[in-house]
Amino acid sequence: MGYGLLAGAIAAEIAATTAMKYSDGFTRLWPSLITVTGYLIAFALLAQTLKTLQIGTAYAIWSGIGTAAVATIGMIFLGESTSLIKITGILLVVAGVIVLNLGGAH
């Protein structure tokens, strides 16, 4: 159950961050509302996740996967530059999340 809630929190955070790009500094109504709503949902689901998962594990997954996903969205869909260094950085973020999770298992 905890990982399902965490997946929802990640999805909401990715949607909110992507919508923020389209909000044009919170001057456009709908993207701004999606941003605020997405972050409210993301934090509510993350808070519920922390009832069953360790905070270090949950936050590492939430922030790491969110960061990697938003960076990838930026490169693929938003015209941001792509380079081997950026791709390596994304892979290192994902690897860091995996290592933290392996280290936290009892």
Automatic annotation (TrEMBL):
CC annotations in GO: plasma membrane
Keywords, sorted A to Z: Cell membrane, Membrane, Transmembrane, Transmembrane helix, Transport
GO MF, one annotated term: transmembrane transporter activity
Domain of life of the source: Bacteria
Gene3D superfamilies hit by this protein: 1.10.3730.20
Annotated membrane topology: Multi-pass membrane protein
One Pfam family per UniProt: Multi_Drug_Res
Compartments in which it is found: Cell membrane
InterPro entries reported in the protein's UniProt record: EmrE-like (IPR037185), Small_drug/metabolite_transptr (IPR000390), Small_multidrug_res (IPR045324)
NADP as UniProt keyword: no
Segments crossing the lipid bilayer: 29-47, 59-78, 84-103
Family label: Belongs to the drug/metabolite transporter (DMT) superfamily. Small multidrug resistance (SMR) (TC 2.A.7.1) family.
Designated name of the protein: QacE family quaternary ammonium compound efflux SMR transporter
Organism of this sequence: Streptomyces purpureus
